[in-house]
Specification:
Blueprint (H helix, E strand, L loop, with lengths): L7 E2 L1 H13 L6 H8 L7 E2 H14 L5 H8 L7 H7 L4 H15 L3 E7 L4 E7 L5 H19 L8 E3 L7 H11 L3 E2 L5 E5 L13 H19 L3 H11 L5 H7 L4 H10 L4 H19 L4 H7 L5 H12 L3 H12 L1
Parallel strand pairs: 5-6
Antiparallel strand pairs: 1-2, 3-4, 4-7, 5-7
Length: 334
């Protein structure tokens, strides 16, 4: 359990994911069911627990297109307040503005940004989670595409979907295009949905000014709870997005001196090193388990000068070397 990570995900969003899984004819994994049964109906789900839920799904279903399928199967009406707020906006442009503003109410695993140029608009999604990022990004962006098509009565037709990770095989790329019915570009700088600027004026079929007037004040009150973030939470979020950041770089980003940052964290009874170790150890163990990165790559991503420095830190956390830790995980699966 990651005690320093106070991010969370809306329970309705998580339910919508599993309802989508069920609608695809796939059973909810036993591990996920056990985790969900421990959650109070009125609680948000801690991000570390959301990671475990995703892990359970991925271990149960080895489908490289599962994120796309889940996104296509999700419904805006299933995600509660924010879903209804988006559905009832006047047009697509206003819905996107509300999505950018109120997305933290759905989940604190990333944020949206709209970029415009003379030719097109890009709705970009910047994830701040490092575990299972591919399937989670695909689910989010595919759900946005599918629901926008529905809410505009089929008038919304994106120009392209950009995905910021290496291209799969040509056969799999063809499967992506058949499912999404639009061109894709891999190895992009940022994952994004591209569409024409005129699409921002597309009216939504469920537009309702009275509903918006009723829901927006409730959403504003909830959003205020996310605005008052403690300093250690801000530091943790920065480190989760870039675990290799040094104290000096984090302080600069927060417009503080490194010494002032240290003093402020002490007031919250935490140190920068403790926060850094918590984040680094979490992702080190996750990546060693996933097996996609070499130990050298993990060391570099986490900001260590070399494999030896990373190994020393890892032994301090786990009393075992990274290589031995990875081997122990392999033995458990045999």
């Amino acid at each position: 359990m990651d005690l320093t990570d106070t991010r969370s995900v809306n329970l309705n969003y998580t339910r919508a994911l599993f309802e989508a899984l069920t609608s695809l004819g796939l059973a909810i994994p036993e591990g996920a069911s056990n985790l969900l049964s421990q959650i109070n109906q009125e609680e948000r789900i801690p991000i570390y627990l959301q990671d475990l839920l995703w892990e359970s799904v991925i271990e149960s279903y080895h489908d490289p297109l599962l994120g796309v399928r889940l996104g296509l199967a999700m419904q805006a009406s299933q995600i509660g307040l924010v879903g209804y707020l988006l559905m009832t906006q006047k047009n697509l442009g206003e819905a996107i503005e509300q999505l950018i503003t109120y997305h933290p109410l759905l989940g604190e695993g990333g944020h949206f940004e709209m970029r415009r140029d003379a030719f097109a608009v890009n709705l970009c999604y910047h994830p701040s989670f490092l575990s299972f990022a591919k399937i989670r990004v695909e689910t989010v962006l595919t759900a946005c595409i599918a629901q926008t098509r529905i809410l505009t009565g089929g008038k919304f037709q994106p120009l392209k979907l950009f995905l910021s990770y290496p291209a799969p095989s040509l056969a799999l790329q063809q499967c992506y295009q058949e499912l999404l019915q639009l061109p894709l570009e891999f190895n992009a700088k940022v994952s994004a949905i591209q569409f024409t600027a005129k699409d921002l004026a597309l009216p939504l079929i469920a537009a309702d000014e009275e509903v918006v007037a009723c829901l927006k004040p409730k959403a504003d009150v909830l959003l205020q709870t996310f605005a008052a973030k403690t300093l250690h939470r801000k530091v943790t979020l920065l480190l989760q997005q870039a675990p290799g950041l040094t104290r000096e770089k984090v302080a600069k980003h927060l417009c503080l001196s490194p010494r002032h940052l240290g003093r402020k964290l002490q007031e919250e009874q935490i140190s920068f090193r403790a926060l850094q170790d918590e984040v680094r150890s979490h992702y080190a163990k996750q990546w060693l388990k996933e097996g996609e990165k070499t130990i050298v790559e993990i060391a570099s991503t986490l900001g260590y000068s070399d494999e030896s420095a990373f190994g020393k830190a890892f032994r301090r956390w786990e009393s075992i070397s990274p290589g031995s830790y990875r081997q122990s995980l392999k033995h458990k699966t045999i």
